Predict the structure.
Amino acid sequence: MNLDALKVVLVDDDEDDRLLFKDAIEELDINTNLLLFSNGQEFMDYISLSGQPLPHLVFLDLNMPVKNGIQCLSEIRNTTNLKDVSVAIYSTSSSEKDIEQTFIKGANIYINKPNDFSKLKKAIREVLKLNWQYHTSNLNRDNFILSI
Amino acid sequence: MKLYLKYDINKIFRKILEEQLDKIGVHYKINRLGEVEFNNSLSSQTIKELTTLLSIYGIDIINDHKSEIVQRIKDAITEMINDSSIERQFKTSTYLSESLGYSYTYLSNIFSESTYTSIESFVILKRIDRAKSLILENRLTLTEVAYTLGYSSVAHLSGQFKKTTGLTPTSFQRIIKERNKELNTL
């Protein structure tokens, strides 16, 4: 069976982080299509153009200029045709309160940015695999929550 | 008298497809002619129903043997998780090979090749998915949930829950409650 490419988006204002993420995802044995944006506004502008293929999964950094991760998350959750998109928060904060808040606002996944490359790869791999299951199996998407 | 008709075969095909897909009541998108995409995966029962509906028009669903097997494995696992008597009676491997009629090794290879995951991990994922629903229904205590799903203890359930979701069952419950409150006030 040919596995379709997973459409993945990363929104992060830090260029180094974007490059690192790109390298990590390309080294995985999972077929992906990655799009990069440097803030929430750029992504929302792109996704609201009609006819854009919807991503399966969006990784959002929390602290960004112009439109931060939380604002972007709320907009995604308030847009009807984006409700099936999984949102992963990708942040350096490991505070329980921050994590809970993002879940309550509708995030599916919280990744505490790992500080080494192999851990980053492992985390992304786990997230992609699990997200794939939620897209292809009868699992309850409303209860999809993962914190790593 | 004769009437001469002009028709667009693509339009006819699309119309028929839409009518039949509407009958089975699922969300779909016709990508291009000959390809339909679904938001959620269809059960083998629904696929069978659709096959019958379309066959009247001479439209066949092109079956890919591997994806069909994978779908049947997933359906069988779902049934097993929902019916704890099956789980008490059989080992997963025996149950799957008996209900599908293939050796477990064969099934397990096809599954891993096609889904990025193993049958064992999928069973855990499915069981935790059920645990989540039971926890949110709030009718059973955690001990009862553990028993219903065949865990030897609450600790075992909590451990697997934490490993699969990164959260404890109680914080999961709190978060979803808060989230539903939040969404309802919007």
Observations:
- Residues 66 and 133 of chain A are 33 Å apart (CA to CA).
- Strands of chain A lie at 6-11, 32-37, 57-61, 86-91, 109-112, 146-147.
- The first helix of chain A runs from residue 15 to 26.
- Chain A has a mean pLDDT of 87.
